[in-house]
Fold:
Amino acid sequence: MEGKALILVALGLCFQSLTTSTGVAAASSNRRRGNDNFKDIESKFALRTPEEITEDRCHLVPGDINSVAGCNFNHSSKTFVVIHGWTVTGMYESWVPKLVGALFKREPDSNVIVVDWLSRAQQHYPVSAGYTKVVGQDVARFINWLSEQFNYPLDNIHFLGYSLGAHAAGVAGSLTNKKINRITGLDPAGPNFEYAEAPSRLSPDDADFVDVLHTFTRGSPGRSIGIQKPVGHVDIYPNGGFFQPGCNLFDAINQIATKGLGDMDQLVKCSHERSIHLFIDSLLNEENPSKAYRCSSKEAFDKGLCLSCKKNRCNNMGYEINKVRAKRSSKMYLKTRSQMPYKVFHYQVKLHFLGTESVTQINQVLLLSLYGTIAESEDISITLPEMSTNKTYSFLIYTEIDIGELLMVKVQWKSDSFFSWSDWWSSTGFGIQKIRVKAGETQKKVVFCSRENISHLKKGKDPVAFMKCYDKSLNKKDV
Ligand SMILES: *[C@@H]1O[C@H](CO)[C@@H](O)[C@H](O)[C@H]1NC(C)=O
Ligand SMILES: *[C@@H]1O[C@H](CO)[C@@H](O)[C@H](O)[C@H]1NC(C)=O
Ligand SMILES: *[C@@H]1O[C@H](CO)[C@@H](O)[C@H](O)[C@H]1NC(C)=O
Structure:
């Protein structure tokens, strides 16, 4: 009996000495004792300034009160904590100063802290992925110290984590004494995290509000660079989240030709890093936030079925997001341009094809032109998988510029080839009486009418025009 107890005690001691070498046990035991010496914190916390957005000139050192005054930490302003992801080069990537600069532009008095965990972030991916736990612990201990030592409110803290950094931010948020204000996850890493339990990845419990941008989730679950499942209160999937416009090889070559190799790292991880640039855009273009719309799927969104703003169904993407905490995490979608400013203007278009003869055509291309009070956007191409007599079709189109209030819509039915004899001789066509358009950004519904009561849309022929006949807001009947 006694022998056994001894062994248990010995094992226990052994176990304890093993675990104290890891951060968790150290953090919790030190929190109890209240005299953490912080010696084992490897991550570094650089306070950048609007004058020096690129270099880490001044470090806040946990346990060293003077470092905080020495770096001119402003105790009455909010604090952003930027956490980078995996790195091949062991250096900060070019987006870091861009994000820091944009944060200062928007919030000039804020404290912007860059967490340096570069040495742990340049290991083999699975090793670096494992380090997100200790990095999160480092950040949490630092933040807890800052708040205890100076009474700095955790409600003033916003973490921004990219890729692996998003999960480090999540771990950190789960270990702070009280919940911090917000975590923004910028395309949180997928491999090793897609199926991980909430405590080891970013999750909605990690802050008062967690918003996530998913920009590179192409591939099978667990394999894609970005995590596919929603992990925040609001999860936004720009352009469906798989892949971003302007990020294919052809675009990359074009960009190298025009801009040189300077931002090479950006090209390689174009879609992954787009999450950061979308956020930067939201900081810089304050007056025009892009809107994202709640939707059950990318497919439903592409049919234009989700452009509603009722009951918090739409939200601003990025910095000015409304802190909506639904019971279930909600997926939101939007389209963007391929470069800054990323904002586009979304429209749902509904067409009903009339005819006495039953006609069905598949994979037909329509060209839509929208004319508004400010500008026009012509020949927006849309492929309809099917066109049949007496059926209504709904689809999404978007313009890259604000064309103002809609006045007129033109529709053209493209022929299958440049010159098609079958289109020339046959008179394949449908009648269209009205076109219904709903604008996502203004939430206005407008009905456009044919000038001849019914216009005939013929394949391969001239566009047909429809004039605004009434605003749906004036008419109670639902569209
Ligand atoms: C600290 O920030 C506040 C706004 O949060 C600002 O009014 C004040 O001037 C700042 N102090 C210093 C020393 O920059
Ligand atoms: C389409 O509907 C109209 C009006 O209801 C009808 O007259 C016409 O025969 C229908 N066409 C076909 C092909 O069913
Ligand atoms: C317009 O067409 C519809 C359907 O063919 C018809 O019922 C209606 O009377 C027409 N209206 C006018 C003003 O010609």
Observations:
- The longest strand covers residues 360-372.
- The two ends are 81 Å apart (CA to CA).
- Residues 1-33, 474-479 have pLDDT under 50 and may be disordered.
